[in-house]
Task: structure prediction
Amino acid sequence: MFVLIFFTVVLAFFLYRLFAPGGSRHALPLPPGPKPWPVVGNLPHLGPVPHHSLAALARQYGPLMHLRLGFADVVVAASASVASQFLKTHDANFSSRPPNSGAKHLAYNYQDLVFAPYGPRWRMLRKISSVHLFSGKALDDLKHVRQEEVGVLAHGLASAGSKPVSLGQLLNVCTVNALGRVMVGRRLFGDGGGREDQKADEFKSMVVEMMVLAGVFNIGDFIPALEWLDLQGVAGKMKKLHKRFDAFLTAIVEDHKRSGEGKHVDMLTTLLSLTDDADGEGAKLTDTEIKALLLNMFTAGTDTSSSTVEWAIAELLRHPKILAQLQQELDQVVGRDRLVTESDLPNLTYLQAVIKETFRLHPSTPLSLPRMASESCEINGFHIPKGATLLVNVWAISRDPAQWSEPLEFRPERFLPGGEKPNVDVKGNDFEVIPFGAGRRICAGMTLGLRMVSLMTATLVHGFDWTLADGLTPEKLNMDEAYGLTLQRAAPLMVHPRNRLAPHAYNASSP
Ligand code: HEM
Result:
């Protein structure tokens, strides 16, 4: 076995040197970067938390770096201006994603929206989700669903009693149920009221496992000759996890077909009813494509939003003056007689600054999602080879001291009039803070994500005072990040809520 592996790697290495993607033979140089090791290249440089290691490397080699991971060319953007070169000036060329084991084993072999190659099928899937889920009209039509689910969360917290609550877990149930009602016409878990629910715990752990696996730099993706060996066991774990997700999604789709189409007004009914010539949307979707789309929404759309709110509350607990100022704004605009609604959000200026500042310091996907160069091109005088993977270190960009004063400080005021970035938003226009990415493949669910994150944060801050469990003081709160494609807290936030509104405000009208 050892001899076989040895010769496979050596052969692959020499074939690679022979047919290497033009970088070294090109007139322009490749961007600078750390010297790669033989065969594995710069994989060892990535360390346990790649966005941290890549940020440190960028300080040494500059905001546009070239790495060789195994046999793959990888370029890393670590400043706002370099990111805008890739995602604005050269966006069309970087609108596909590189092949990877996650797309193959977890996302139904690229049949989903997140990993679909840029082209007609991606356009069709993106259009379907834009029209039925994310358009202004679709979002407004379903705003009562989000408000009801956030109301159920507040009701559960108001009756939490003396036991501490795991805030991230409850927020996750809230986002999954809100999305579940929109996507498949029903809640997926329990009553959403804050009691423990084994199925919900299991689902969250599946999503987190998916993000952890998808975040692993899998050797087989970068050294194809070694793919079959699955050295880190990643592909094996992905296949097992895929079976669990598939069973979960198949049950939902079959149940929906059985319970009679036309009864529900939800996205799954619409997807099942599309025909080949359906209203210009292009094609009938197969059951696999439908399951892949549901999988995207339930994974890309839940943990990202709920963990952002968990980070926001953790920051506010560490900054009591900012928390008090936000509560004051909420009391002024909403009063103490009812919960926040989505219609209040445009009137909550300080809340918006707090949300932006949370996204700046804790972007849910710190390395965004990878893109790929469809053709070779020139950026800032460097050669970017065809097929190179692009990583945008959005985490490093939004902590860049060249752009932000005291970048590690949580200071929402920087986004207010008179602050250093009064007109900057997080929607992909201002490259110094791009938590949702930018360009053609910007997050499809950005508007929904922003509304959910804002509504949940506002409701938690307005509805409750908070203390940390086990007598922990805010200064001692662990703010470490766990490893994965998404930015989880290493230690879940355990807290005690204390009601601050009139008792009737918490009486959620359960649908
Ligand atoms: C806090 C909330 C969220 C954040 C920070 C976030 C972040 C991101 C990022 C960085 C990307 C990659 C963009 C790029 O390549 O430039 C992405 C893609 C995507 N997101 Fe989100 N996301 C969030 C919420 C959601 C929600 C609520 C949904 C759906 C329910 C969603 C669905 C998607 C999909 C489908 C894609 C792939 C788009 C494509 O490839 O065309 N996301 N998201």
Q: What stands out?
A: The longest strand covers residues 64-69. The beta strands are 64-69, 72-77, 165-166, 371-372, 377-379, 382-384, 389-392, 464-468, 494-499. The mean pLDDT is 89.
